[in-house]
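Re: [ENG-882] Designed sequences occasionally contain unexpected residues at chain ends

Forwarding the minimal case from QA. Structure tokens:
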């Protein structure tokens, strides 16, 4: 089955949901495709206290608020895994469906590299962080270890 949209957004993290909000508010027939829950890394974040205009909020709540706002302007949401996008902006999904957009936005986020050390997975978000700017205040006046390549680890620490 092929479906036609003005705008297809691949990824439902903050960037994808923001794009859906603006696209749908502008009257574009908008589809958000995501292969997980809406919110991206927000749903893995316990407490957010550096989002403009919000003193403190749970990541899952902010994700749901953003999702509800984006879909309130008729952006459609579909669970799907993208296998391919061709030069005609046809988006091929793993379930065999094809969607086409006049424009396609890739908002797939990032994936951190783990070190495969004992306790690492269990302590993600509970002492192990990937963003010094985001989480640095939680570790103020504590001994920390910063691991990274190039200048980024030095700059963040």
């Amino acid at each position: 089955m092929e479906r036609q949209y003005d705008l297809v957004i691949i990824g439902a993290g903050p960037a994808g949901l923001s794009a859906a909000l603006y696209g749908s508010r502008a009257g574009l027939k908008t589809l958000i495709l995501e292969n997980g829950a809406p919110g991206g890394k927000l749903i893995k974040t316990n407490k957010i206290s550096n989002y403009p205009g919000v003193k403190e909020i749970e990541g899952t709540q902010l994700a749901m608020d953003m999702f509800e706002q984006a879909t309130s302007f008729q952006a459609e949401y579909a669970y799907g895994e993208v296998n391919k996008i061709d030069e005609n902006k046809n988006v091929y999904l793993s379930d065999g469906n094809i969607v086409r957009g006049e424009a396609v936005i890739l908002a797939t986020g990032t994936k951190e590299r783990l070190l495969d050390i004992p306790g690492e997975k269990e302590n993600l978000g509970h002492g192990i962080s990937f963003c010094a700017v985001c989480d640095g205040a939680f570790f103020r006046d504590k001994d920390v270890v910063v691991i990274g390549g190039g200048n980024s680890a030095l700059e963040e620490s």
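QA comment: On inspection the terminal residues look reasonable. The two ends are 50 Å apart (CA to CA). Proposing we downgrade this to a documentation issue.
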